[in-house]
Design goal:
single chain; mainly alpha; about 0% strand
Length: about 190
């Protein structure tokens, strides 16, 4: 008899499962009253986090940490650059002021004025010093008072000033009479 196709035996195959196939598992489950399993690996549960997912999570966390530290370094450097630019601007303004001062000192009129401020006089001129009541020389620099320190004067309306003058005209203040001088002061009449 020629060889016909053989039906596969229920022997375990390499890399395969042993035991009844899907149909056999369903009929065995029905006989025992269990629900039939869906899929080939219904008997064992798959872990939620596989090794690939674990590696992916680790790689993503490492990338996030490295990007966050790089971003922080970038922001710190940008702040530092801003501070340096402001320092450069201040120093450039100071250089401009010094150059302007240097150009002033090249002008002979400015040099003469600065010498006069230090009480120097040109040849042939006479210097005068103003003294105060104690005999001490007055300061060259006059000091102004701070306008904020002076109490502001509250303005009055024009009609109130006009009404006060009407009242004053109706009731003039009494003037005390002075006795005439009996002796003439010799210092005034000379």
């Amino acid at each position: 008899m020629p060889e016909s196709r053989r039906t596969p035996s229920r022997a375990p195959r390499p890399g395969g499962r042993s035991g009844p196939g899907r149909a056999g598992a369903r009929s065995a489950a029905r006989a025992t009253g269990e629900q039939p399993a869906v899929g080939a690996s219904a008997g064992r549960r798959r872990p939620r986090l596989t090794s690939r997912a674990t590696v992916l999570v680790l790689v993503l966390s490492l990338l996030t940490i490295s990007y966050a530290s790089s971003l922080r370094a970038y922001l710190d450097q940008r702040d530092h650059i801003g501070d340096l630019k402001s320092q450069i601007a201040l120093r450039q303004a100071r250089i401009d002021d010094l150059e302007r001062e240097k150009r002033r000192w090249e002008d002979p009129a400015y040099v003469r004025q600065q010498a006069r401020d230090l009480n120097y006089v040109m040849p042939g001129e006479t210097a005068y010093v103003v003294l105060d009541e104690d005999g001490k020389p007055l300061d060259v620099e006059s000091k102004l008072s701070d306008p904020a320190a002076v109490a502001p004067k509250t303005p009055t309306a024009w009609w109130s000033t006009a009404w006060k003058s009407v009242e004053l005209a109706g009731n003039p203040p009494k003037v005390e009479k002075q006795k005439p001088a009996t002796k003439i002061d010799e210092g005034n009449g000379g």
